[in-house]
Amino acid sequence: MYLQDIFIAGSETSSTAIEWTFSELLKSPRMMEKAQEEVRQVYYGKTNADETGIHELKESSKSCVIDGYEVPAKSKVIINAWAIGRDPKYWKEAERFFPERFLESSIDYKGADFEYIPFGAGRRICPGITYARAVVELTLAQLLFHFDWKLPGDMKLEDIDMTEKFGLAVGRKTDLHLVPIPYKNHFCY
Ligand code: HEM
């Protein structure tokens, strides 16, 4: 592994996660309100949402057979975590942005539950997992704490383009343009 790998593996992944979260929150005003309420409650009385409140390459060393498929030694195996996370065999309303599904579930993202492996699992699980969580959560918390969010002009929720761009970290095809409205938190002034 090279130092460069850490930068490549560590930047677009986190920004992509933040951008998609924001796209989904904008499309779902109820979730946006709930998320903002939660963040603003946690940081109530504070002037900022600070840290106090809170790839997929596998190289096999030996040949093996998985589910009838032979995987020769030294193959690069890319696990489609995107498809696993949307498999209706394991998820109710798999395509729906419904973060509350995790509230009453023991399933988490740390690699023990194979139906949900955004950071991979096992020996090659993402080593940046703790840092990534801090970056994504802190960035989202600050954006939700300090601003309300509007779409530009007379754009409607259904006009938000959710087309994906193919890649290792599947990003947005088009940039997400939003208008921030500063939230008047009286503790700030
Ligand atoms: C939301 C953010 C991130 C996501 C979703 C993510 C996801 C992943 C996934 C799925 C893998 C492949 C695991 C496997 O092969 O089973 C991986 C590997 C890796 N990640 Fe992340 N990652 C994120 C952030 C980061 C950050 C911030 C860093 C470093 C600062 C990082 C460094 C790495 C490295 C070095 C590997 C290769 C590990 C290996 O092959 O042994 N990642 N990541």
From TrEMBL:
This protein's GO CC annotations: membrane
Localization, UniProt: Membrane
Keyword entries, A-Z: Heme, Iron, Membrane, Metal-binding, Monooxygenase, Oxidoreductase, Transmembrane, Transmembrane helix
GO molecular function terms attached to this record: heme binding; iron ion binding; monooxygenase activity; oxidoreductase activity, acting on paired donors, with incorporation or reduction of molecular oxygen
Membrane topology: Single-pass membrane protein
Protein residues bound to heme: 126
Pfam families: p450 (PF00067)
Major localization listed first in the record, in broad terms: membrane
Record protein name field: Cytochrome P450, E-class, group I
The organism of origin for this protein: Trema orientale (Charcoal tree)
